[in-house]
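Technical note accompanying the year-one report. For the benefit of new consortium partners, we illustrate the data format agreed upon in the data management plan: each record pairs a sequence with a structure-token string. No post-processing was applied to the example shown here.
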Amino acid sequence: MVEAPPILSTSILDFNHKKFAMKTIKIFFQTLLIGLILNSCVQFDSYELPDLLIEEPNITPNTTLSTVKKALEQAFASNEDLLYTFPIEESPVYTEAYVVSSDATGNFYKKIIVQDKAVNPTSGLAILVNDPALNERFELGRKIYIKLDGLSISYDDGSSSPDPSNTAPGVYTLGFIDRSELVAIPAAAIKEHLFRSTELATLVPQVVQATAITQNQLNTLVRLENQQFEKNQLDKSFAGEPYDEFDGFRMLRDCATATNIRLQTSTFSSFKSVIIPSGKGHIEGILTKDYSAKYLVVIVHSPAAVSFTDPARCDPNYLSCELVAMQRSKVLLYEDFENIKNNASLLAAGWSNINSNQGLTVFKPKTSNGNRILELSAYDTAENPLEVWLVSPPISLLANNHAVLSFETNTGYDNGTALRVFVSTDYAGDPSKTQWIPIDAVLSEGPSSGYQVKFTKSGAVSLSCLSGTVHIGFQYLGADGLISTTVQLDKFQVVDSQ
């Protein structure tokens, strides 16, 4: 005979029901809490997390990036307006483009750079977007569609009178108009103007020559071959030096032509403190212009884009004389410029002050903090290029001398290396017909706004391997709208053993 199971009391059943109910409520609140935490991680004004499967928008592009730019060029031709707003049409106007920038490392901020094709692009522009996490949706190589209706486009080439029809490369930027200024597309309007395609293309950087950059290459992904950082940039970080404000600029040297272009890195980037490589090779990045559109820059997504793995650098053949310690010294030439009041007195002291292109801009005496100096800047000179030579009076050196050169420099509003130093044994009044030997002296650098607090000493530069009459030449090479760094010179001297 099988016994019947014991009958549970009502109190035990009630207890189990309550226990189950409490457990269910606990799980519910845990689930709710996790949901709230996950939801809080998504910005209120940002896109929702992307779906695993992207649907292709039902959009047919009916214009190109080049045509978008021409709309502004036509507006400028008719009324010299550098802002153009696309009208809201009954049939919307769309263009397509490929994303070539990424804010994943913090080197781009609230901006998307796009070009018209993934390979061999012919046009590119920037889009200002009020979203600090664009890489989550508009990643590298993503094809996008841009609805132009209601958007505005601007142009800037960094000159005092920007002109889309001139030969100076300039940048085109899309955004919204606010009080006659171009601003970022508001977060709430992003989904009305930017649409992701299902296509994720492989981007191929176009190889460009530093001396032959064209308008069509700006705001595109490029590759510069045979590059290295200038010698005075070595041992520096990408953008972590004390004088780096907002952005760090490091001068690249093209080994084939000895021309320069700047690498721009944000001081908010995750790799700002990484030391730049010392070799040579190639660099891949966005070719564009700096914030003020005054000069060309390259911006990379990460240090890996700078592939300088060849240790064989292409530095100039600097003067290399043995530095011999002197017990006593005799001053061969000293100039602190305290008695130089104008260009006439500078020339009377035996110095040459020559503008190579017959322009009016030359080194000028100036009093700074009670100290007399020489100063030069290409800013607002309307000279492009600006090449000026300041050449010392003749200095007589004996054979087996122990002569040493030294001087001090200071820089202000630094946007690139403008000053170089040379020595010559055959100078006869024309710098262009002189054999100049570059001197590897320490020169002042930075900041990008204001001036260095103290002058930088050049260090002791030996002239012991030279003899006869020599001249020291300071070459300023810049341009209004490009490199326009202010350079100051003081306390020039050459001494020898007595």
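Partners are asked to follow this layout when depositing records. The chain has three domains: 65-200, 206-310, 329-497.
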